[in-house]
Amino acid sequence: MGTQYWGAGRIGTHQSIAYTGTAGTVANTVTSGVQKVRVCATSACYIAIGVSPTATTSGIYMPADSVEYFTIGPGEKVSAVQSSAGGTLHVTEVS
Predict the structure, then answer these.
(1) I need a labelling partner for 82 at 20 to 30 A (CA). Which of 9, 62, 88, 89 fits?
(2) pLDDT tens digits, one per residue of 51-88
(3) What's the rounded Cα separation, in Å, for the pair 63 and 46?
(4) CATH number of 11-94
(5) 74 vs 4, which has greater pLDDT?
(6) What pLDDT, on the 0 to 100 scale, is given for residue 9?
(7) CB 37 within 8 A of CB 30
(8) Per-residue model confidence (pLDDT) at position 70
């Protein structure tokens, strides 16, 4: 079984990126040693996490203004694409 995260941890680097019908991907990979990120989006969207992610409507659905924590690996980024309206993806490192 993988690592489970409950509650918050130490807040680290924050990145944000706009998305529309075209995916937006944060510019930087996570800091070395970071294994989880807090993700929030201002409108309903789909996300993808990976080394070179491009979110599509087949990705993980996130409702507007909800917060989720995801495990992330070295060299990975987060990407989002709109469900029906553009918005801003917020990704914060948590350790």
Answers:
(1) 9
(2) 999 999 999 999 999 999 999 999 999 999 999 999 99
(3) 9
(4) 2.60.120
(5) 74
(6) 83
(7) yes
(8) 96
Print burial letters for 45-75: b (CB count within 10 Å at least 16), e (below 16).
Answer: bbbbbeeebebeeebeebeeeeeebbebeee
Extended strands (E) in the chain: 11-19, 24-25, 36-41, 45-50, 60-62, 67-71, 77-82, 87-94
Q: Can you read off the two tokens belonging to residue 32?
A: 């070395």
Locate 80 and state its tokens: 């989002």
Residues 6+ apart with CB under 8 A from 79: 19, 23, 24, 25, 26, 47, 48, 49, 50, 53, 54, 55, 89
Task: Identify residue 6 by its one-letter amino acid code.
Answer: W
The token pair that represents 24 in the structure block:
């937006």
At position 10, the amino acid (one-letter code) is R
Structure tokens at 63: 């409702």
